[in-house]
Amino acid sequence: AVAALDNGLARTPPMGWLHWERFLCGTDCASDSRRCVSERLFAEMADRMAAEGWRDAGYEFLCIDDCWMAPTRDERGRLRADPERFPGGIRQLADYVHSKGLKLGIYSDVGTKTCSGFPGSYDHYDLDAQTFASWGVDLLKFDGCSSSSLELLAEGYRRMSLALNRTGRSIVYSCEWPFYLRPVQQPNYTEIKQYCNQWRNFYDVYDSWNSIKSILDWTALHQDSIVKIAGPGGWNDPDMARSVIRRTVFLSQLVIGNFGLSWDQSVTQMAMWAIMAAPLFMSNDLRRISPEAKCLLQNKEVIAINQDPLGKQGYQILKYQNFELWERPLSGRAYAVAVLNQQEIGGPQNFTFSLTFLGNGLACNPACSVRQVLPASRDWGVYSWTSSLSAEVNPTGTVLLKV
């Protein structure tokens, strides 16, 4: 296994909430104070995370994305929060978030400007790392816009990693490095894992089934190069395109509880993000989330699969017509198994497969118990090694099992 960034962090995929997909670059607080990127928004989300079970379910990071900054640095060259939207500053917000038992994430960029045109960290890596540490920041998402060459991009990602470590504060480091390399060259994941705790592979996530489907297709297509690199301390962050023009996003966002996914598609995203050992960062409005979406996002059995301490990423083992079969090795010689129905027309369909498919034939040898986790929790009983399982799966839905 490749050694991960040695800062002792992200032993399991990080979990939390972030503003981007739901709240975008909202800076006009005068016309809509409840939806602009401001300290009020983050304080209200922190309150909900602490009071309504999110923190206790494992969602510990509250993350600020792009558009938090003032348009210019201060007289000493330091980044600063927009004084109207963050009148108390980031340090005060971090103290409030910490008082709720949560951790604060923040955003910057390896280049001269962020993707939304705010000041980037180029030529200020040490100063910005020290600033974030002095504010009590716990996670940095480092974007890759406005870098003039791939060499400067790579150098910037390395330098910020070292600068964060020199602060002496534990700060999870989330990189966009491979995403910005891919159009030109194959990323060196061995090197990236030595500098980053998680890394984004693909375009921005969108509140739509097409977006989720494209993530899964891309991941399956590239699984031979990305699955083996994931593990404690370093994680693949699947992401998906919102547009080809605007390319800033924070992490692989769970868009459950928004507007674009059906119930079955929401189940699919939750199940497959658990299979892929993906960071679980919600981007939704916790003040208005439905009870059903809340129950799905807080499902302890699914989260336990995502957070499994063995830290192996799952992969597709079979594709037949509209069905896909995925597995993920878990601790205790168990496996998580997902049966995904990609068909978008008609009704539920049955998919039958032999247990000998799983774990190179070892997952159920000589016998195993099978439990369904999603879309509803129930025991399927005990099966022998040569048995077959049959799952009825709704269109664009997934049945998640633990074997």
CATH uppermost class of the largest domain: Alpha Beta
The 3D shape can be described as: globular
Q: Biggest sheet: strands side by side, in what order?
A: 7-6-5-4-3-2-1-9-8
- What integer is the average pLDDT? 93
User: Helical region count?
Assistant: 13
Approximate strand percentage: 15-25%
- The total strand number stands at 17
The CATH topology of the largest domain comes to: TIM Barrel
Task: Give the termini separation.
Answer: 25 Å
Secondary-structure element sequence? EHHHEHEHEHEHHEHHEEHEHHEEEEEEEE
Unreliable sequence segments: 240-251
InterPro entries: Aldolase_TIM, GH, Glyco_hydro_27, Glyco_hydro_27/36_CS, Glyco_hydro_b, Melibiase/NAGA_C
Domain Alpha galactosidase A C-terminal: 311-397
GO molecular function: alpha-galactosidase activity
Subcellular location: Lysosome
Please explain how this structure is put together.
The chain is an alpha/beta fold and 403 residues long. It folds into two domains: 15-307, Aldolase class I (TIM Barrel); 315-402, Golgi alpha-mannosidase II (Immunoglobulin-like), CATH 2.60.40.1180. The chain has helices at residues 20-23, 39-51, 54-57, 89-99, 125-135, 150-166, 177-181, 189-195, 209-221, 223-226, 263-275, 291-297, 300-306; strands at 15-18, 61-63, 103-109, 139-143, 172-175, 198-200, 235-237, 253-254, 280-282, 315-320, 323-329, 335-341, 349-354, 367-374, 378-384, 388-393, 398-402. Strand 14 and strand 15 (378-384) form a beta hairpin. 51% of the residues are buried. Residues 240-251 have low confidence and may be disordered.
